[in-house]
Each structure stands twice: as C-alpha cells, then as structure tokens.
C-alpha cells in the first residue's frame, strides 16, 4: 500500500515538492576538491551500460527535435533538472558541475569539440522553452567554447517515456544512518553517452565531479582512437575519397553548431595522373573499357579532351565549362544542386549525372537519348540553359580562334582540325578515362579479401542481391559489376513530379540550425513552375515510356548526392527509404518496384553497402583534375561578349 | 508511519495545487511588481528602469542557500566597484510574517548596504513568486518554528525591466560577475547608440 502510494507520487514529487533544506556542510563532493586521486586516463574500461533512449523534446528556441538529433555525433552529458528545484545536492549540483566543465572547455579544445552538455527539464508545465531560453541566456558571457543546451518537452506525454527509459525515478531522501528525511527528491543521475548513443557512465550525487567526468571522457576518447586504428588496420580501409568534397564543405549545416570550414584554394593541389594507363587497365571489378574503333585512345586526345572539359570559353559567354556541373571533387557531379544550373543561372530540369564510369554506359542522359560520349558532348554545349552556344559552327569557329588551341587538334587527330567530330572525340576520350573501381566491395567480392568489407556492408550486400532486389537493375556480374542494366524504369519519382504531388509545407534550411516550414503556396508565388518532364516518352513518344529514366551505375554513389533524375532525395538513407516504400504508385510503375519491408537495421546495412562502392582511385582522378588547366578568356582570345578587345585576363 | 502517511497526503495535496498552478502558467515569466521596501516605502520594479536588477527570493531565517547567495551577490557588487551604481540587488522575502521591513533592513545590511530587502502581504508576495515561477512551501517543525523551502534561482532583469536570464543556484560568483559585466556593456552600447 505504501509502495503503491509512493509510486503514484513519483511524478508529483518531481514537479514541485523536492525542496529540501540541505545543509551546506553536507554538500556533495562535486562542489569541492576531489577527495581521491583519479586513475590514469585510458587505464580503465567503461563498458556500455545500455542504450541511451530517444524521445521528442523541445529546444530552447521552441523547436521540436529528436533527443538524438540534439546529441548529434558528440559525446553527451545528460542531466534531468527542473528550474524550481532547490535541493543543493540536486539540480544545482548538476549545474555547478556542468559549469565547471564548461569553464574547462575554454582551455581544452578537444573537450569543447567532443562533449556536449544537455540539461533536460522534467517539469514541462513550468519549464517552458522560454524558461529554458532564460537559463541558456545566462551563459552568453561564459565563453564560446563548448555547448550546453537547456531543453524541455511538450508535456508529460512526451516526457514519461524518456524518464522511464533512463530509469529516472524519484525517491525518498535518506540520511547516512538510513533514517528518512523530510524531503523527497529525484535521484540525481547524470549520464555520459557516447556517439553511438550508448550510456557509458552514470554519476550519482557522490560521484558527480567535473574532474572525474573529464577523466572518463578522455579515457573514452583515447580508447576510441585506439579502436579506430585497430579497425582500420583490420579492414584495410583506404582513405580514398579525401579530395571528394566541396571546397565549402557543408556537412552538418543543419546543426546550429555548424561553422564554415571552407578550404583554402592552396589546399587544392593537383597531381597529373597517367590516365591512359588507368583506362587501359581498369581497376578491379570493371570490365575492359569499350573504345570505338574510330576513336582509339591516345595521350594527345586525352590531354586535349581534358583541357576542353575545364575550359569556360566553350560556353556562349565564356563563363561555363563542363566541369562546373560535373565537378571533380563532387563525384564529377554537383553535390550542391538537386537540378543543375547553366549559364546566367538558367535552370536545368534534371540532376547532373556523374561522369565516373560513363565509358561503360550504353545510354546517355537520364532519358537515354544519346548512345555514345562522342555525340553526347553536343547536348550540353548547345542547350540554351547549359552552355548555350547557338550552333555547332559557332563553337568550332570559337575554338579555332583561340590561340592556345592552335595545332592541338591537328596533332591529336592526324592533321584533322577542329570539327564537330574531333571535338566530340577529344572530350569523350578524357571522359572515358574516368573509370573507378577497386572499391572495398570489389576487393572483397572480386579480390577475395575477406577483411575488405565490414560485417554491416556484407549484410547489406546480401540484402542488395536478395530481399531488397536492388541487383535486378543494378547488376553485379561474376567477374565485374557496372551496377546498371542499361535500361530505363518508372519508379514513380517522375510521376510524382509531373502530378505535382508535394507536401503542403516544405522545410527550407535558411541558416545553420534554422529551418523554416514554408507553405507550398508561398513557394509557388515566387518559384519557377516545375518543368515538364515525362522521361523516356519524350524520346520515343510511346505512352508506355512515360516517366521512365535510366538506371544509373551505383559506383561512387556515396560521392554523388543528391539522387534520382531530379535530385529529389538528399541522402542514401532517403533513397533506401524510397525503395523500401515501393516507389510512387502509378499505372506505369515498374513491377520490380514494390514495398520491401526492410527493418531499420536492414536499411543501415544497405547504406553501408552503398558506401563501400567508392572507388580506390577517386583521389587520383580528382587530383589529376585539379592539375588540369582552367581555360579562361585571356590575351590572344577574341572576346565574344565585349567585342574583339579583351580587357583583362 | 502515520505521520509519514500524513506527510505524503500533504505532498499529494500540494502537488495537485501546483499542477493547477502549472496549468495557468502560460503567462509570460517576469514583469513589474509592487511590494514594500525595507525602509517601509512602497516599491515598484519599474522604478529601477535604467538599472540592471539582480533579483533573489528567500527569507531571513534561511540557514544556507540565502546567505550563500547574498554573500555571492555582495562579492559581485564589491568586485564591480563604481559600476555597482548601475546595478540593484533585490531580496524578496517569502516569509513576510517574520520578515518585517525592519528585520529585512538589518538583515540585508549585514551583507551590503546597497542591497534592497522587499516584502509585502502574503498575497502580494505570492503574486510576485507566481510571476517569476518561484516555488516555496512552509515546513512546520516540532518545536513550533518553521522553515521555508524555496527554489533558488537568481533573476537578471535588464534596464528596460525585461527578464533577461536566469542563473541556477550553484554557479560560482565569477560567472555572475562576468554576466553582469557583459550586460552592463550591452546597456552602455545601447545608450551610446540611441
């Protein structure tokens, strides 16, 4: 009876009655000096004590967030508090200790960078986001280093599952002789949580001390590094894609803590590669590169094509090269645009495809309207919203007039000068060399290296060829894999776009951590209407081909976000979710697309597999691209914009 | 066990009270209030506009938290030197029955003469506590005396009378000092730009 009564009080006590008249003489060790020497950092183990649960919370800005989202990828100290608490050895103790750690962060950059502190209120009725904001305001002058967030929940309904999962209960206070005291209090427990969301330590009143916590964190960090090195040695993972990120790398931009980390242009160091050698002997997992009989690969042609690929003068107004949509360090596509943008900001209606391994593609463009790279080149050159040249002849005459191309076509093509044919052949020759294989998957599957692929990615492979059915279109052969069936399919993405099936509100990220939910009507009032796009039908005029798009290769797919022909999916996780959901129903939906019933683990495994497809030579190819000359208007060039006089180089 | 049961009942009862209170708690936290100062003059928070106000709630019989916090406040005011003129420390008594203006006058004088003690009727004090969401509760002792449990945040109110930050108990006075200095600098900037 008494127990039942106590249990029914658990909640009641937390909200207002945990007031006690603790004596300062009884104050917890956390207020003073640590009474014992700390063990050496790294000399002890902190085994995981279970999962740190998720839940829906509200940050001090009033935004609904997932608790794990607030944790992000940091180590986290989590305390449950309430603002009207006055038990000296309760919430104020956690504030005191957190404050000490915040102060230590000023001197310890590693601490500030890796640890995040979160105080979560268990009194949502009183502790509104406004109150939590007032709390966090008070650290405005406590130094910028480190993060301490004060968060709350919308109501008891959101709070209770969180309290339960952290086993955060309220108990009677008992003195050292075991006699019950006047007050009731929640048992103060502070949780140390690792980036994998596992609880690694729980501090009660007697152990809550900033020096102990910092010691524990440093121990975890040391062990993390050691483990990382071990894993790396075991898996033999190459850091192959170090160069493959935008110069202004926006990863984590959705977090308020994001800081700009633009790369200095000086770090963009080029190193020319022997492209002919690479293409003549393609990396593991790739078949021999098909080369047209009338355009055999030579160093001169590759060199010339590479120069043309990076030449801005190939556009109407001398501003736009091929590489500006097929950006080498962005997977030879553009990570920053869902749909491409051509000269003068003209919108293109599809996502720019990666040039990696385009040598093997039997169909080019998303609707497969071209059949080889030599011809394909002319598409972007002449499209009014891409490079916008008015005619073939215009391009050819322009190149003939540029002095630094004098004689180079003749040298590469046995005396043949600039022509529609030779220009296509030169650029195609360079693109053909961008073959990329020898990924972790290739080393595991074709190379027989059992250590090459993580267990997660191996499970992902099983799903890829099995339950998830991905390999039906993204094919894997016995000796090599191109991850495409060279045909076109209707997944419903195009249908959804044509039918204007869009959510009422669209999240728009306007600044780090600031997302606005913008009404569709507002977007439509200022935005360009979505372009008409019926996919393959535009090429064949066959109604059955509506909304069919080409199966892209998945090699280097981790580097080529965003995804789908219109770039509408931002991450591999979203793509897997999309296929798991069975695409978008429409009367022409490909029968291969169906709900898959994948678990969260399955999805994570599939993403791990997709991430293992990054080629072992991408850094080589990107560094080679960095070494290529960038063609720009200079002396000796006719200027097609301002007459014949050139003002500046 | 019997007395324990009674206590639990009391707790449950006051919890339901506090829940009822919580439900109407959507109103803004902070704001102007009227009380009586320790010189027996009527007092209004708005009369301190232009100054940075440090507001604390407690009672003079308080054995631990209040003296500690007032000593911290005093340390901050002393450290500020001349700038202390732009700051006003307020100590609102949650125990107006015992804390008459005279008692308050002597009590705050032990710490710092520039501190101002405030009290009023039970209702007036309760109203201010509600505005600032301060929880307090009287505890009877067996000898007939009583203590008051109360939450122990410090409220920083800017020169326009707007509640600008809440400092939880347990944060060292150095932090409070930095915070006050920072807010004073902000106030100076606002003045010079206007």
Rounded radius of gyration of chain A (Å): 30 Å
Count of helical stretches of chain B: 5
Q: Average pLDDT across residues of chain A?
A: 86
Tally of contiguous helical segments of chain A: 22
Can you give the helix content of chain B as a percent range?
40-55%
Classify the secondary structure makeup of chain B into a structural class. alpha+beta
The strand line-up of the biggest sheet of chain A is 5-4-3-8-9
Q: Report the biggest beta sheet of chain B as strand number plus sense, adding barrel if it closes.
A: 7 strands, mixed
Q: Categorize the overall geometry of chain B.
A: globular
Q: What's the quaternary structure here?
A: heterodimer
Largest interface: A-B, 45 and 49 residues
Main-sheet strand order of chain B equals 2-1-5-4-3-8-9
Number of strands of chain B: 9
Task: Specify the biggest β-sheet of chain A.
Answer: 5 strands, mixed
* Mean pLDDT score of chain B: 82
Q: Report strand % of chain A.
A: 5-15%
Tell me the overall shape of chain A.
Answer: elongated
Low-confidence stretches of chain A: 1-25, 179-184, 231-238
Q: What structural class results from the helix and strand content of chain A?
A: alpha+beta
Helix content of chain A: 25-40%
Looking at this protein, list some descriptive labels.
heterodimer, A: alpha+beta, five-stranded mixed β-sheet, 10% strand, elongated, disordered N terminus, B: 194 residues, alpha+beta, seven-stranded mixed β-sheet, two-stranded antiparallel ribbon, globular
Task: Give a description of the structure.
- The complex is a heterodimer of chains A (649) and B (194).
- Chain A is of the alpha+beta class and 649 residues long.
- In chain A, 32% of the residues lie in helices and 10% in strands.
- Chain A has 22 helices and 13 strands.
- In chain A, the strands form five sheets. Chain A has a five-stranded mixed beta sheet with strand order 5-4-3-8-9.
- In chain A, helix 16 packs across helix 21 and helix 20 (572-580) crosses helix 21.
- The longest helix of chain A has 26 residues, at 210-235.
- Mean pLDDT of chain A is 86; it is low at 1-25, 179-184 and 231-238.
- With 194 residues, chain B is an alpha+beta fold.
- In chain B, the strands form two sheets. In chain B, strands 2-1-5-4-3-8-9 form a seven-stranded mixed beta sheet. Chain B has a two-stranded antiparallel sheet with strand order 6-7.
- In chain B, strand 6 and strand 7 (146-150) form a beta hairpin.
- At the A-B interface, helix 1, helix 3, helix 5 and strand 7 of A face helix 1, strand 6, strand 7, strand 9 and helix 5 of B.
């Amino acid at each position: 009876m008494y127990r039942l009564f106590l249990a029914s009080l658990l909640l009641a006590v937390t909200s207002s009655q945990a007031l006690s008249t603790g004596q300062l003489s009884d104050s917890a060790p956390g207020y003073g000096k640590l009474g014992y020497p700390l063990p050496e950092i790294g000399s002890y183990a902190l085994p995981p004590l279970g999962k740190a649960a998720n839940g829906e919370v509200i940050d001090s800005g009033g935004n609904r967030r997932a608790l794990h989202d607030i944790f992000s990828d940091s180590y986290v100290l989590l305390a449950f508090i309430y603002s009207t608490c006055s038990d000296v050895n309760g919430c104020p103790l956690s504030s005191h200790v957190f404050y000490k750690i915040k102060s230590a962060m000023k001197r310890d950059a590693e601490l500030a960078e890796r640890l995040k502190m979160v105080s979560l209120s268990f009194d949502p009725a009183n502790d509104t986001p406004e109150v939590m904001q007032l709390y966090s305001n008070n650290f405005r002058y406590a130094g910028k280093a480190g993060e301490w967030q004060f968060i709350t929940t919308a109501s008891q309904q959101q709070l209770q599952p969180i309290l339960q999962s952290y086993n955060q209960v309220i108990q009677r206070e008992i003195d050292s002789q075991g006699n019950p005291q006047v007050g009731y209090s929640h048992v103060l427990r502070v949780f140390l949580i690792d980036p994998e969301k596992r609880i690694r330590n729980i501090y009660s009143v007697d152990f809550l001390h900033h020096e102990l916590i910092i010691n524990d964190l440093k121990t975890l960090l040391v062990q993390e590094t050691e483990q990382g090195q071990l894993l790396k040695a075991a898996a033999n993972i190459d850091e192959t894609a170090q160069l493959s990120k935008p110069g202004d790398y926006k990863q984590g931009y959705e977090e308020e803590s994001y800081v700009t980390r633009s790369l200095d242009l000086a770090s963009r160091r080029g190193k020319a590669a022997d492209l002919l050698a690479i293409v003549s002997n393609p990396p593991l997992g790739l078949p021999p590169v098909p080369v047209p009989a009338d355009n055999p690969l030579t160093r001169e042609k590759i060199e010339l094509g590479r120069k043309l690929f990076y030449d801005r003068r190939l556009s109407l107004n001398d501003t736009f090269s091929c590489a500006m949509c097929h950006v080498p360090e962005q997977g030879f596509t553009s990570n920053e645009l869902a749909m491409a943008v051509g000269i003068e900001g003209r919108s293109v209606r599809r996502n720019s495809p990666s040039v990696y391994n385009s040598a093997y593609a039997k169909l080019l463009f998303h609707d497969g309207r071209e059949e080889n790279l030599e011809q394909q080149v002319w598409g972007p050159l002449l499209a009014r919203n891409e490079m916008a040249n008015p005619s073939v002849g215009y391009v050819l005459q322009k190149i003939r007039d540029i002095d630094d191309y004098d004689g180079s076509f003749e040298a590469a093509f046995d005396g043949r000068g600039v022509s529609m044919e030779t220009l296509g052949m030169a650029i195609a020759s360079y693109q053909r060399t961008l073959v990329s294989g020898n990924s972790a998957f290739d080393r595991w599957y074709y190379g027989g290296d059992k250590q090459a692929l993580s267990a997660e990615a191996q499970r992902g492979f099983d799903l890829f060829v099995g339950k998830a059915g991905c390999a039906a279109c993204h094919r894997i052969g016995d000796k090599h894999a191109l991850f495409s069936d060279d045909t076109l399919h209707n997944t419903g993405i195009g249908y959804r776009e044509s039918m204007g099936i869009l959510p009422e509100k669209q999240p728009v990220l306007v600044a780090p951590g600031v997302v606005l939910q913008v009404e569709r009507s507002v977007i439509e009032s200022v935005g360009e209407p979505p372009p008409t796009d019926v996919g393959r039908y535009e090429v064949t005029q066959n109604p059955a081909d509506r909304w069919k798009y080409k199966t892209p290769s998945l090699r280097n797919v981790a580097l080529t976000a965003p995804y789908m022909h219109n770039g509408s999916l931002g991450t591999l996780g979203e793509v897997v979710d999309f296929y798991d959901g069975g695409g978008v129903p429409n009367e022409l939906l490909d029968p291969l697309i169906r709900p898959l019933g994948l678990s969260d683990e399955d999805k994570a495994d599939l993403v791990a597999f997709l991430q293992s497809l990054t080629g072992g030579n991408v850094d080589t190819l990107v560094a080679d691209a960095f070494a290529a000359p960038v063609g720009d208007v200079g002396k000796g060039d006719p200027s097609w914009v301002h007459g014949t006089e050139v003002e500046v180089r | 066990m019997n007395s324990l049961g009674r206590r639990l009942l009391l707790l449950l009862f006051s919890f339901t009270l506090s829940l009822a209170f919580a439900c109407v708690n959507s109103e803004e936290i902070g704001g102007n209030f009227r009380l009586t100062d320790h010189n027996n003059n009527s007092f209004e928070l708005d009369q301190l506009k232009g100054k940075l106000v440090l507001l604390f709630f407690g009672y003079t019989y308080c054995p631990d938290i209040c003296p500690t916090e007032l000593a911290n406040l005093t340390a901050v005011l002393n450290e500020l030197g001349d700038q202390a003129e732009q700051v006003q420390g307020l100590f609102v008594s949650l125990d107006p029955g015992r804390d008459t203006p005279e008692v308050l006058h002597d009590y705050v004088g032990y710490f710092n003469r520039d501190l101002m003690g405030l009290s009023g009727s039970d209702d007036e004090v309760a109203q201010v506590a509600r505005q600032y969401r301060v929880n307090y509760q009287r505890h009877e002792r067996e000898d007939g005396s009583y203590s008051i449990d109360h939450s122990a945040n410090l409220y920083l109110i800017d020169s326009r009378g707007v509640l600008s930050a809440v400092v939880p108990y347990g944060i060292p006075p150095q932090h409070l000092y930095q915070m006050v200095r920072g807010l004073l600098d902000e106030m100076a900037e606002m003045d010079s730009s206007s």
